[in-house]
Structures are given as C-alpha cells and as structure tokens.
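Thread: Newbie trying to understand structure tokens

Hi all, I'm a second-year student working on a class project, and my supervisor (Dr. K.) asked me to get a predicted structure for one chain before our next meeting. I've only ever worked with sequences, so writing a 3D structure as a token string is new to me. If someone could post the tokens and maybe explain what I'm looking at, I'd be very grateful. Here's the chain:
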Amino acid sequence: MSSLWPATLQNGELILRPLRYRDRSKWSEVRARNLQWLKPWEATVPLVPEREPAGLPSFFAMVRALNEEGRSGHSFSFIIWKERNLIGQISLGGVIYGAMRGGHIGYWIDQSYANRGYTTQAVEMVTDFAFKKLFLHRIEINLCPENEASRKVAEKAGYLFESERPNYLHINGEWRDHVTFIKENLLIK
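---
Reply by user tm_fold:
Sure, no problem. This is what the structure looks like when written as tokens:
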C-alpha cells in the first residue's frame, strides 16, 4: 500500500492531499475559526473509568500518525484545498481488505465554504480513489440523523440510506445515534 501514499487527488478547482507539517498555521486557523460550527458533529473520545484522559495529540504527532496510517493502507486523510485556501478535511478510514473490502468516509468543511458543493465533490473524489485505486467494494458514511447538510452530501454523492445505528459514535461528548449511507463498487466481483 505504501506506493499509494502520499496521494494527491485533483478535480477541477479542488485538490485533496495529505496534511503536511507546514500546513499547521492554516489548519489551526481554519479549525479555530470553525470551532462552534463543527462542535456539534465532532467525534470525541469517551472517558474510560480508572484511566486518565489521553488528550489530543500535537499537530505534528497527528500528521505523523495520519501518514503512517496512509502508508499502511488502513486510513487515508486528505485536506481539501480550493486554490490557496484550506477549506476542509476528508478521510477514508477503517479500511479493511480481504473478503469485506470496505471503509468509511468522514469529513468537515469550513463554514464559509459550506453549501457550495465542495464537500460532495471531495466525497466523490475519495470514493473514486477507494474504488479505482484500492479496489474496495463498499464505503459507508455515518452521520447524525439531524445533520441535514451531511445527509445531502451523502445523497448527492450517490450514497444510499442503509440503516440506523443507535448509540453508534461518541460525538460532542455523548454516544449519538447515526444513520448509515452506503455506496458499493459494482465492478468488484
């Protein structure tokens, strides 16, 4: 898998590429500016009794970990660029090969670039990467049922509603119900 990472995906005005150390100031600025916008949908780590909370890794540790995951073929995380503007991030994670050949996509977008089709375009690009480069069969997008914007992204990208998952992910400090949208690569037999 290491031959596939680092990968850069481009489609018209959007470029998806791995996060780099030198992106720290732009990434931190966009995340800080969008803190309240993203908070209701952010994954969090539940507290485990009798354990100290781990806390978040440093930016540099995060970049290192994301690149290690990419080289191993288990997760591929891209930042989304429009011209010289970092506008979001998208990841294909939980990649499993063998008989299942699947993974899941998660994403966030800068509020000032929301509702312009950029997230949908990024999902389509990563889905294409998953199907044509990794030869995955099934991709999931799991989202909170009340997140209408994310639901529209999944639907516009051709993902179909599959199921409800009670208490599926820890989001914004609590276990939250999710709905699952899927897309299958019909070329994989």
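A couple of things are worth pointing out once you decode it. The two ends are 21 Å apart (CA to CA). The mean pLDDT is 93. Feel free to ask follow-ups in this thread.
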